């Protein structure tokens, strides 16, 4: 097994540098020429400026504007960070030991960098605030969903914890607030085929073999609202939101289901009323049975 090259660049604001391998063949004379073709979203003048400032490095040090293209060589650099609106909510630590970190993530904070959310993500905040540069996610939670997320502190154990989720060995409990329908018979197991087309914001249920399953239970009714316990057996994109919408009780505060709603980047009102309430599993390192529970509440139910 080939050993991964370590980066000559440190993290910046908790963000790892990009590692890029140059193609084994090609017509480029310089690294600059290749990067201009390979990263069309980055203006050529910005690439030239980065090379001129020594911000793009190879295994032997900084590369310059005239550095030759070397087939198969590795280079590293930091992408320019997007301008982000700070998410004004704290991440609460639920558990920390030498291997595992479990946190209570707020609404509106992405788990890991993606698109326009980089520094304002749980992973990057935690790396920086807890001085854990090698922290990695064991799984992911939607940006708009609050609740429990697990991170791995020791890189050599990352695979063991990620495998728990891949093999569906983690018991997950969610809580949601949605409309109460007296004609909807619960508990009920919902099975459907969910498809999310690339480039589309919302997923949809389509004909075909089911690839998703959720047990839906009504925990409590209060007027025209219900508090629901959701026990997913699979983890499709937006699965819980799609399933409750399909039952005719879309989750309160949902920007996608049943209708896509545009929200300003600095609008933190009316959060999605969905909470990752509990995680339970057998720890692959210690063999202990573990259960973690969120301390958060859903504002539509608690009035907070």
Could you estimate the helical fraction of the residues in percent?
10-25%
Morphology call: elongated
In angstroms, what is the radius of gyration? 23 Å
Distance between the termini: 52 Å
Number of helices: 6
| Average pLDDT, all residues | 94
Overall strand count: 15
Q: What is the element string, with H for helices and E for strands?
A: EHHEEEEEHEEHEEEEEHEEH
| Strand percentage | 25-35%
The largest pleated sheet is described as:
11 strands, mixed
Low-confidence runs (pLDDT<50, min 5 residues)?
none
Structural class label: alpha+beta
Summarize the topology.
Blueprint lengths: L17 E4 L9 H8 L5 H9 L4 E2 L2 E2 L11 E4 L14 E5 L3 E6 L16 H8 L6 E2 L8 E7 L5 H9 L4 E9 L8 E8 L8 E3 L5 E11 L2 E8 L6 H8 L27 E9 L6 E5 L5 H4 L2
Report on the architecture of this protein.
With 304 residues, the protein is of the alpha+beta class. Helices cover 15% and strands 28% of the residues. The protein has helices at residues 31-38, 44-52, 122-129, 158-166, 239-246, 299-302, and strands at residues 18-21, 57-58, 61-62, 74-77, 92-96, 100-105, 136-137, 146-152, 171-179, 188-195, 204-206, 212-222, 225-232, 274-282, 289-293. The model has no long low-confidence stretch (mean pLDDT 94).
